[in-house]
Predict the structure.
Amino acid sequence: MKVRQGKREDSRAFLGLVDALAAYEKLGPPTRAGKARLVRDIFDRKIVRLLVAEDGKKLLGYALYFFTYSSFLAKPTLYLEDLFVLESERGLGAGKSLFRECVRLAKKNGCGRMEWAVLTWNSPAIRFYEGMKAKRLSDWYVYRLDERAIDAISRA
């Protein structure tokens, strides 16, 4: 099993993993246009980055990440948007390898921290992250404006 940067030729298999993550999280998968934007934003616009875990024959999982910035630390933050391994491939070290590569990239890029969100019902992920010494924040709430709210506010 090997972790590497994703390549454009991984797009079809990667998008299959995104669909599998959506099913696992009981969410609708990205639309065809959404998938096209995702591939464009990774490989053309380079605003999000992709790591993949492979066994030589197929992709087992992926990590999707980007950098934000902490004004108080005055350092970048690696934000881990997705870390996903196919259910049939879990327990073989792919998730741990992807996570450790993200940590290595955070260190290499001078990050003051690494952050991500976990669904409250996803106890396997919570155990995994806490086993990697991550600390759950209790003094922050996550807020979101969806596209409809963004449109409404921008018109006001």
User: Anything to note?
Assistant: Residues 34 and 40 are 10 Å apart (CA to CA).
